[in-house]
Amino acid sequence: MLNLTYPLIDDEFKRFCAGKRGILLVEEGQPDFIEQNVNTILRRADLQTRVHGKDVLPMAGEYTGGVVLKGVARFIDIYAPTLLQGRDLPAAARPAASGLAVLNGNPKAFAIQAASSEVQPRPPSFCTGCPERPIFTAMKLLERELGQHHVSCDIGCHLFSVLPPFNIGATTMGYGLGWAGASAFNTPETSKRTIAMMGDGGFWHNGLTSGVGNAVFNQTDNVLLVVDNGYSAATGGQDVLSSKAINPIRSTNNPIEKAVCGVGVKWAKTVTNTYSLAQMRDTLREALTTKEKGPKVIIAQSECMLNRQRRVKPQIPQDDCRRRTCGARALWH
Ligand code: SF4
Q: At residue 152, what are phi and psi to the nearest 5 degrees?
């Protein structure tokens, strides 16, 4: 059902709930503002639909896939228990033993069993064409020459690098904390420089102070790689200070390199095209091997491909692809 978190659209709730015995509301956090609001809407409309939420889901804590699965199972158990016993499922998805017994014992196992015949496993990863892929490819290429380095990760799309096929990244502390998380490695006892990762969102969130300022103050000899894709991409593509977009109500186009130099970094380089593997690799190699002491910052720039598609696609006539006779593929395919 389409609606808003606030204010709720009463008529849509009434239309949706009419004739239904119960609905399940998945509302993370406490207090249960939306659940209370929905109950009020339904009681005022004299609809007897029961609202389930915090009675089958936990009051607090993160609603992970496993947590929601248990809640949905409890909800189904109230209104359609035969589904849990597998009687209404396709033969391939039925559990071997009593469905409810298996579900109560291990809901995850039941879900996996039911879905495995239909779904191919696919680990989460970067979008197709993501400009961050070549950054990590360059790091893997460099590993062949210099060996592995400790990589202190951050929060953001680039964290997909900890998964296959890259398997890069040893630690993650929090949003904007990539370089702060590598502080303990600022010691002559380690033979290799560490690499810290940070997105432009994390950088402006607090990385400039907690990471870069701290590294300048403590004269770290390590490397920070800032992924400057022009957006707070992982949270939906909001503008940040260094975004290239012209924003009438915000100040954008403030370069990250200027900011890091402003707090005292002497070695800072901007790569303006992450898809240039050779340039990415060579810049990283230089940062990791230069005799120059002190903090080193690489800003790796290329526009987030997902947001680029959103930006470019509306500018192209919709039937343009169909009119093409040359066989060339358009950018947004
Ligand atoms: S949202 Fe953008 S930056 Fe994130 S994975 Fe997709 S293309 Fe890459």
A: -95, 110
Longest CA–CA separation in the chain, Å? 76
The residue type at 88: D
Beta bridge partners of 221: none
- For ligand 1, say whether the CB of 127 is within 6 Å of any of its atoms: yes
CA angle, residues 307, 308, 314, in degrees to nearest 5: 100
Among 130, 301, 303, 310, residue to substitute to test ligand 1 (most atoms within 8 Å of Cβ): 130
Separation of CA 175 and ligand 1 centre (Å): 16
pLDDT above 50 (res 138):
yes
Which residue among 162, 306, 308, 309 is best mutated to probe the pocket of ligand 1, counting the most ligand atoms within 8 A of its Cβ?
Answer: 306
Does 2 fall in a domain? no
Residue 124 resides in a domain: no
Mean pLDDT of the chain: 88
219: left (phi over 0), alpha (psi -120 to 50) or beta: left
User: Do the domain assignments include residue 159?
Assistant: yes
Q: Tell which residue, 98, 56, 102, 93, has the closest CA to residue 78.
A: 56
Q: For 296-305, what is the mean pLDDT?
A: 97
pLDDT per residue over 27-46, tens digit each? 999 899 999 999 999 999 99
Asked whether residue 43 falls in the same domain as residue 180, the answer is no
Q: List 267's β-bridge partners, or say none.
A: 296
Q: Which two tokens stand for residue 127?
A: 């979008």
Q: How many residues does the chain have?
A: 333
Domain that holds residue 41: 10-116
CA–CA separation, 123 vs 131, rounded Å?
19
